[in-house]
Write the structure tokens for this entry.
Amino acid sequence: MIKELILVFVAAVLVNNFVLKYFLGICPFLGVSDNLHSAVSMGFATTFVMSITAPVAWCIKHFVLDKLGLPFLEYVCFIIVIASLVQFVEMVIKKFYPALHQAMGIYLPLITTNCAILFMALQLVLREYSLLRSIVFGFGSGLGFTLAITIMAGIREEIEFCDVPRCLKGPGITLIIAGLLALIFVGLGGLIKVN
Amino acid sequence: MTKTPVILKDFAKGLWQENPVFRLLIGMCPTLAVTSQAQNGLAMGLATSFTLIASSTIVSIFRKLIPKEVRIPSYILIIATFVTIVSLYLQAKFPDISKDLGPYIPLIIVNCLILGRQEVFASKNPTHRAAADALGMGLGFTISLVALGMVRELLGSGTIFSFKVLGDGFRPWIIMLTPPGAFLSLGLMLGMINIIDRLLKGKS
Amino acid sequence: MEKTLLSMAVMGGLAALLGIILSAAYSKLKVEEDPGVEKITELLPGVNCGACGFASCEEFARQLVRKETDIEKCRITFRNKEVVMKIKNLTP
Amino acid sequence: MKKGLKITLTLTLIAVLSGAILAEVYKVTVEDIKANQKKEIEEAVFSVLPGAKEYKRETRGSREFFKCFDDKAELRGIAFVAEGIGYQDIIKVVVGVDSGLSKITGIRVIAHNETPGLGAKISEGWFEEQFKGLSAAVRLDLVKGEPDKKNQIQAITGATISSQALVDIINKEIEDIKKHKVGNCD
């Protein structure tokens, strides 16, 4: 059982990387990755958020949607609970733990419009993961996102000193670098076989 | 010159000056993901435009009733409803497109483009202007997706809308259909659009 | 017909529950925010899409006040002349 | 307190309305969706079992399969959906075997995400043709060069992982079908 969880984890981080294979979280990926510090904290906040969203999504699916036979409410239920949950948790942290809010809490609102998190929640549904496996999958995908965004931030800090053609400045060159990174991650494709 | 009506200006800006994909650079997730075929790009563009127009209209009709504190959850709820309708319609009427687009249809809900337009435009302007803006943005988004889709499909499998264009002698660049190809072609296309824009500005 | 009622009940119940939690949170957990930042957050789209490099518009507003970033980074509003103007004169 | 009420009321009103609309739309589209799914399976099943006219879905234990009858209502063979991991993602294939579980009558890949142009070739006709007529009694195996023995399949150049994955999936499912003693004891 543990072996399978480790496989799911490594596959989520390296093989099925959320940014470079499923094109998720591209808005923050283009926006945030110009300095290392904010990239790392954004990455870890996303991982933290994905790890709590995974069990919540799993519970909604099993206890609400399957029991009552309302498959078409899937998207609406997920998104309204996630959006409201986030606003509530952020307010609680901001009120009672200002220090924690300064470090992590500021990234909580990120959930509502981050494609990665909704996609991950819906993938759990599609693949009928068990609860434990969902959490590992959420955590692994978040780390995959962090890995991609940190590598990109490191490269982009170097790019400041090279003379990039004027028309490619900013997002253009970032996309081309992301393309090369994706090429490397394609190489990792056959690493692990696990669904 | 006669003062162009405001609606026309709202509509036109979505096509070029504020083209969501190439100028505002939002809504990139579906742009990269489904454009391995021009047909899928068109389908995703139309689905997104329908959702954008429908929710912009509804949001601008009720803009005075929705309290400030819960405006984001309410907008997302309206958008999610329309996206579910689109998803069910596609599964019923176009099953193969629905299978191709697959997991990316629900991602229209969190598409920064739609939520962004609700917040910046639809909730602050009368309905007719909001609808015009949504139409312009939707059309701009669809055109960009189809353009990128055509480039990737032409180079990736030698066809456009699955009509054989390049002869059999052409060995397709398979990379164009994989993620690296998506990033590279969008990056280069962005560069090209910037050059064209600078030429246009240079002239006028 | 029965499925429709069930679906309305589930959605209504869920939204009511979340509405109560949110409204309670708004009244009890109000944290005084520096008015300058709050005014800018009002102008920003509040979509928290992260394209500016900060996870929330509120954080982006705080950085704007501290002059550590520029409105150009907000992909959704940087083309909107009036909002950019308003924010420019809010951050002297 | 008035504002709190307004917040809850708005959210609930929108949610109830959306719930109602979605239920109605679902009711309208649910038949079409089910018909599409049925048509898809039917198309695959009839393509792997030539001559089959109708099919009956049966389950034995956790194993689900389709019994296919020809126009004279005789048992033509068994078709079942096999699923497993390929190079990148899940591969779904429908396999048809004759009633005595001795010969593979055909296979059809219905869903895969393999690399386009390489692994994706497993769903092309010429590769699927190789499986037709092979014996189901003995395990299939993959060879790089010319297949000589009765149960050998030639791998796709440059996509050995995908071809191997497909062969493994089919072998595993045939064993599973035999384990459930389907077919020859009805």
